[in-house]
TrEMBL record:
<comment type="function">
    <text>Forms oxaloacetate, a four-carbon dicarboxylic acid source for the tricarboxylic acid cycle.</text>
</comment>
<protein>
    <recommendedName>
        <fullName>Phosphoenolpyruvate carboxylase</fullName>
    </recommendedName>
</protein>
<dbReference type="Pfam" id="PF00311">
    <property type="entry name" value="PEPcase"/>
</dbReference>
<dbReference type="InterPro" id="IPR015813">
    <property type="entry name" value="Pyrv/PenolPyrv_kinase-like_dom"/>
</dbReference>
<feature type="active site">
    <location>
        <position position="159"/>
    </location>
</feature>
<dbReference type="InterPro" id="IPR018129">
    <property type="entry name" value="PEP_COase_Lys_AS"/>
</dbReference>
<dbReference type="InterPro" id="IPR021135">
    <property type="entry name" value="PEP_COase"/>
</dbReference>
Length: 383
């Protein structure tokens, strides 16, 4: 069977002890992804391409583990024997492999954290455990006050050495999602389907140019950062808030007000820093803010539409609270035509109508044709 197996790199080497110390799940993931890449290389470039990759791989291992200059010279000779086109293919093969290996490590790290989080006896580094230690040290009142003042302020910044294209980053993200599906597969049919899609994604990754052919502009860097925002931060941050409240309040979470405030404040230097970069102008900063606003508003609109679409509560059984009814009146006064169109699609569903109206107004704000802000109630809209 054709393989490009990372586990084999350490066979018979002085690194075997280190390899044995690595969790079996991680070794299995690296080996599995390496096997799939080997299949892709063979199908794409034939057995000769795979053999060239293997020769270089073994020569480099020999240079790393050997003594003296002979092994290094042998590895250099293997590389020098490749013509330019083949050398590029081999380099891309190793680039793909290292992308997949790094992805496997990240996937394994998440898997370990999930397992740790499911074990209450192994959560000493969690926020609830930290709060418990703080309570012991300063008392419950002081600990609660500090929790209310909690702030986490990450700042996005462009990495000057990051040449990876958004297309490559997106492909790696899709492969990561498929690895999670593979972990959760309950039968051979599901696993076979996941493997087929993994092969498709790895083949696409192999055929995608790994680096840019032009220097990224500040706005390219903004779009790359917002791609990360869309796929991770926008979805993960609410889950972190919910998880923290679940751990702090237990069964009362979601019933009582949250104990901790929304403590994350996200900022970005990209497209806005004035560190002497002549390409970052006032116009670029304005465009960067508009791109960020577009992504945030689009995410909010989709989330609001998704939630609104599920709140199909009949008014006879679940009537609107006075606050929700007042908000619905305000919406009708603000844009009667829009409220009427939504009402036709959602009769007897006041909760759904209000949220779909909010989603439509967010979209209007995103498009720049919403002269007035979305009205906000002064108190709770719960039923």
């Amino acid at each position: 069977m054709t393989t490009f197996d990372g586990a084999r790199w350490a066979e018979g080497s002085t690194r075997s002890d280190i390899r044995e110390a690595v969790d079996a799940d991680l070794r299995e993931d690296v080996s599995y992804l390496g096997n799939l890449l080997g299949r892709v290389l063979t199908e794409s470039g034939g057995e000769e391409l795979f053999r060239d990759v293997e020769r270089v791989r073994l020569a480099v291992i020999g240079a790393y583990e050997g003594e003296g200059d002979a092994s290094v010279e042998q590895a250099q000779a293997q590389v020098d024997s490749l013509d330019q086109a083949r050398a590029e293919e081999v380099a891309r093969a190793f680039t793909c492999y290292f992308h997949l290996s790094n992805l496997a490590e990240e996937h394994h790290r998440v898997r370990v954290l999930k397992r740790r989080g499911s074990d209450a006896s192994d959560a000493s580094d969690s926020l609830p455990a930290t709060l418990a230690v703080l309570t012991d040290e300063v008392g419950a009142d002081a600990a609660a006050e500090r929790l209310q003042n909690l702030r986490f302020h990450p700042v996005l910044t462009a990495h000057p050495t990051e040449a990876r294209r958004r297309a490559v980053a997106s492909g790696i993200r899709r492969i990561s999602d498929l690895l999670e599906e593979r972990d959760a597969a309950v039968n051979d049919v599901a696993r076979d389907d996941t493997e087929r899609r993994l092969l498709e994604e790895i083949d696409t990754l192999w055929r995608t140019s790994p680096i840019r052919t032009t220097r990224p502009t500040p706005l390219d860097e903004v779009r790359t950062a917002m791609n990360v925002f869309d796929q991770t931060l926008f979805e993960v941050v609410p889950r972190v808030y919910r998880l923290l409240d679940d751990r702090l309040q237990g069964g009362q979470a979601g019933v009582n007000p949250a104990v901790a405030p929304a403590f994350l404040r996200l900022s970005s230097w990209i497209g806005g820093d004035r560190d002497g970069n002549p390409h970052v102008t006032a116009e670029v900063t304005r465009a960067a803010a508009e791109i960020a606003a577009e992504h945030v508003l689009l995410g909010l609109s989709r989330a609001t539409s998704r939630v609104g679409g599920t709140l199909t509560l009949d008014e006879d059984d679940t009537p609107a609270s006075p606050a929700l009814a007042a908000l619905a009146d305000t919406q009708r006064a603000l844009d009667g035509d829009l409220a009427s169109r939504i009402g036709i699609r959602s009769p007897q569903e006041s909760h759904r109508r209000v949220l779909l109206f909010v989603a439509a107004r967010i979209d209007a704000t995103r498009r720049g044709d919403a002269p007035s802000p979305t009205p906000r109630p002064t108190n709770s809209c719960s039923t």
